[in-house]
């Protein structure tokens, strides 16, 4: 696939190259940074940092001098431009020239200068912004001044010391050496880099950590070795070498990146490591993406054909000229002109010369202005898409962004959509729903009720939007519209604060925390669990007072306690107070370190554990934090001395200090009323925030987080400080995160792990069989697993919480390795990963949580209409299978009426087998529908002018091969299926399914799937996602769409289009995509037609001028025809024409298929247009020819009418093709005609001696007095356009295609139209089309029998299981579900062992018999209302309180059906 | 409630930006198309009939005098390089040839529209700029210089100027009576007055010092019409007519008009004799020469094509509308009402 990266980063490359050249003398793999203060420039001492790029940025491509050559050079990279220049230059060769050479240059110069002006303008804007940035101020240390002086950004150099103040923007990549923050932290906001709004903490380099006073640059004498500049924002490795020879590792946590903003930190000092273009921000700054659209690729093929046609025409003419010359032999006629030398030119030579001449004459055939016109039209289209108020999201004040400017028409040709789930289909607003602790489920009914209330409020506002909870609406079209309109301001504002997201921009503006609507924050605790928590903490309190060991706590209570501690601290949430959202809440309790031997040992190995970072008393620490500046003049002890001091320090017991309450004054000030609304949590992911808020609801609230400690407030116990030893962050491979803390109550080193259930469950320590504890654990494990399944079935996101207690020895051993990993420069990531794996084993399961991720507004409707539009929608998600399936039902991706093929295999062979079986199954089951070819053919014929608004069968041309099947595949199976040997089978299976759901897939798999489908099926793919894990898939797809949602901007940065909400995809594709495609397709076709028609006129003339390359059309008209006379109307209609109105396009998504099938621009249409062009040119040529035959007409008096006729014909042709006439269309056509006559009149009156060789002086003036001229201008266009007009008229009145039907619908009054559209199965084609289609909607009759056969076996099975389902209505809903689940698992497990080969493909009963290819036959519509199944996830929640057992029963039933 | 500042990015809600400009959607529905076709067809048929009648009223008389056949009176002139060969062509007119009668000479298979031929002239010479007399434009190659002297007027067009001359006699009672020709105003007014000028020299001859006449010419440009200064040099009407290149290889050019004396109302019936001084060679390229007498209407000379074209297109429109009507009536649905 042609995909070119435009050299936007050219300037960067150049500067990079320059810097590389400079540093070539000492080419190493690392960069060495010395402080500039060490080198006195006055003495001319060579500073090694000189070699590095300075901080001046220059993103401009050109300078005043280099503009012309460089811009021309770039423009000539386009082959077309070279071609046109070649032609223009050819005109300067006397033997072949036709036009005034200067004139021939005009079009090329025009095109080049238009592009150049555009480039100048862009470059000037870049220059302006560069200037602005380069002249920003910052404080740089000056050795001469012995202090910091203000300098421009551009004067900053590598090795400079910079002082940064709060809210300043970083001028370069700076290594943090000192911070006014007592914790030696510096907070930065990276919104400009990655769009994430939460503050990031950066740490002072370790060796400078203990510097207690201000950093003195003059005393700095270390050398920094770090890696070469690179663009990885999340990586920085290096070490600092002190004069003492001590080395210290540097991490990305030490680096402040250019473009970030300093927050919450009064002052920080750092040394510049990378400057200017070598900063990570600049290296990441890629230019806009350049893709070539499908239409453009198709167009290029036809441009190639045009070249062929041109060459054939030239060759023909050359041959003709040779023969013409040859027939005269030696007898030269009087009108022959000899060569300048007076010698006879041989016919062969003159033929060769003529060939070149003809290329010049016929150059118009290659549409020089087409490329420019397309760019102009696309810019206009992008403008209109930007301006669409329907794509504007009020909540976030953001509208759609088109980041790629040249693939708008691809939006109208999509065939496959690959969607992420979380954050794309769903809000990514995590609401804590329920949890299970130690095997006991807490259903949080009150909480569910509360959420239901919010949802009700929501649905009052937008009745039509069903978040998987309301019944499906067949006739929602009408109410949809009205409900939108009725939304009042008050509800809107409620929505903003209430149920929906304060999205990114708003949160940046307001500086409030992200992810915090009341719905997520105010969690109503489950009374049972709340009791337990209270119980637990009061007991703990009691025990603490009585100095009892903590281990005496009953194990269920201790699990509850640990569970909430884990929820609270196992995250990276930053706490801020609401009044000053960006001010970190400072809660420092001094931990007097115990100086036991083991602790000391640990301490020596853990410089990162900074618990006792300050040797001051707690009061002085607090003092300093509240009163910075003042203590700045204290002496600076070296790092070593601090450490020794620490060790010397004596203290009593851990317990005492851990429990020491905060100083009363401080406590009283800040936390006198520690109610929930007080603190805000800033989380990197919404899951974390949801869990922390949930824990807070149980009075277990996170009140402070520092890099070395976490403070938790508990009832009775007050504030507990957890010494944070390590944080092993989340990554997508491990799918978990852990914190290592020292538990203040037990003084044990404890690991809390939180992660995906599939991962955690494997890491749980196998329960010791035999004793009671082991049995209990086994029970917990089993129960939790069941609840997890239940949660997933409800569409909740599940997380498992586990813990592990480490002995000091174990910890010490692990620590040793971990530290090695941390300090390693090579392979650090891998080593850290391995280290994390070593730690996270043998865990003890505490419980699990279920978090709901609500569907976004309008997702089911959007998916439904996109599917009607013939788009195949695949969902690729990292979530677990059950969750994904349920969300898929909720958003109507899967239909309960359709069968579900589930592929789960653990090996390549199993996967292969499964795929083949599925294939057999599909073939067997749907044999009749594909076998009955005649019916199918008839259907295919009829469907072109039939519209079934609600029938998916006719929606897609390929619908015959797409069955009502859903495919679910998990990540592991996907990995096997994507293997080269299986991918074809996989694709065949996947193709025949209506929807595909890939769960548990990694980002790489996502992109592989997209790539596979795109390359193998040769279809247009669109990938939509919101997170960093979608970036690869977005980049691979033909069109990448990013949702500018909660998870930062990475997806948006990688995307071609960025949408605020998923539902806008509908209008973007169905309306704008369709328009853009049909506009451009028509414009391109028109362009080809226009040029061919014009050029053919001259070609016909060659037969009457001895093929001498003479033209009856004046050179001016010939050259400016494309550029001026005929260019405006097509630009206008290419920008504004609407074949069908936006409303109809959205209500009839089927119309989208015209773009998918490239119906507006099929290859044959090019040739049809060519033929039409040749026909029209014949008419336009021969009518004047015969009208003037045997007359005394002179060349241009005859040629000018032809030009006029051609122009009129071409404009009228556009008129026929134009579907909507606005005043702009009329104006542009009138303008074109007027322009032609004005130019002609002026030109023909201007100069009697100029413009050789034509000089048509006074021609048009005479013609305008000639009645024949007008007669010709009337008849020729009519005769030329008659066939096309007749064809169009017949086509649209007698055999309208769906698009034309749509147009006809547009003409109807609005209410009539709505009536027609709301009738679900009205055959709209039929009342307009002559033939009454008789094919039954749905499957052919003879298929039903087989269908039943297919359902027989599962029906039996369902019957068998319904025995077990018998006690499905006991008072306790949970147990019923449990039993049901158990029933589901056991037989399936046993059958998994059966050899698959025993199954006979011809017998349909084998099909649903293994778990691996669990073919889930749908509920026959008669047996149960279909909505029950897919609504249940939230329906349950709604109806749960009223009749809990009953609704459970429904769930169980549904569950059963799903299991079958 | 809503503050504008909060919605800084809200797109402006205008008909243009929202693509809701009031528009007319022409539907090619049968109700519009069929009457439209019929109307256009009828109008065209009307025009066509008018044109045809006009064209039929024009009288044309064509006489070929190439002399390729031995029976032709000009046959002997084609035989050898005879200078000043004169041949006489006799013809008779049955009825009055209505005036004013235009007298044309015609050439066939003559490519005045050839590209290299068309380029070969110098506008600046022809507008009377003497400086270009000395150094003619290189476009005139190879008719730029002869024997080192510049050619005025240079170029192939001027060089190949048609040089047959005609005299028409009416034979009244066996006596030949000269029919007076009017040679004024046969060229374009702008050519005569603006585009072509003689250099401002008296006598005109002086301007042509040190120049050569075109190689095919028998007399220099300043002797084209010695009797009338306003028809001499570059503004000689025959020269102007020739210099205006014909569009097609078969063409005729106006030679004279018959507007004077007894023949003001046309050529009366009778016998005529055309005396031709046969100079121009056309046999070599298989061309023919002819003369044409014609009178003109408002739409120029006789040409039935335009009228027939209008008739054909008009009837096609009518046929199409009928066809559509039939098809439409056949497949028409009750819902249409």
TrEMBL record, chain A:
Topological category with respect to the lipid bilayer: Multi-pass membrane protein
Comp. bias regions, Basic residues: 486-498
Cofactor: Mg(2+)
This protein's record includes keyword Membrane: yes
Active site: 420
Biased composition (Low complexity): 609-632
UniProt catalytic activity: ATP + H2O + phospholipidSide 1 = ADP + phosphate + phospholipidSide 2; a beta-D-glucosyl-(1<->1')-N-acylsphing-4-enine(out) + ATP + H2O = a beta-D-glucosyl-(1<->1')-N-acylsphing-4-enine(in) + ADP + phosphate + H(+)
Ranges of biased composition (kind: Polar residues): 633-654
Keywords, alphabetical: ATP-binding, Endoplasmic reticulum, Magnesium, Membrane, Metal-binding, Nucleotide-binding, Translocase, Transmembrane, Transmembrane helix
Principal location: endoplasmic reticulum
A GO molecular function held by the record: ATPase-coupled intramembrane lipid transporter activity
Composition bias type Basic and acidic residues, residue spans: 1346-1359
Domain P-type ATPase N-terminal: 45-101
Residue stretches spanning the membrane: 79-97, 303-328, 348-372, 1164-1188, 1195-1216, 1222-1246, 1267-1287
Region (Disordered): 1-31, 466-505, 609-673, 1327-1381
EC number: 7.6.2.1
Annotated ranges, domain P-type ATPase C-terminal: 1052-1297
Entry's Gene Ontology BP terms: phospholipid translocation
Residues noted as binding Mg(2+) in the record, renumbered to the chain: 420, 422, 1026, 1030
Pfam families the UniProt entry points to: Cation_ATPase (PF13246), PhoLip_ATPase_C (PF16212), PhoLip_ATPase_N (PF16209)
Name of the protein in its database record: Phospholipid-transporting ATPase
Organism: Oryzias latipes (Japanese rice fish)
Organism ancestry: Eukaryota, Metazoa, Chordata, Craniata, Vertebrata
From TrEMBL, chain B:
GO biological process: phospholipid translocation
Keywords: Membrane, Transmembrane, Transmembrane helix
Pfam families named in the record: CDC50
Principal subcellular localization: membrane
Gene Ontology cellular component list: endoplasmic reticulum; Golgi apparatus; plasma membrane
GO molecular function: aminophospholipid flippase activity
InterPro entries: CDC50/LEM3_fam (IPR005045)
Localisation: Membrane
Residues spanning the membrane: 32-53, 308-329
Similarity remark: Belongs to the CDC50/LEM3 family.
Protein name: Cell cycle control protein
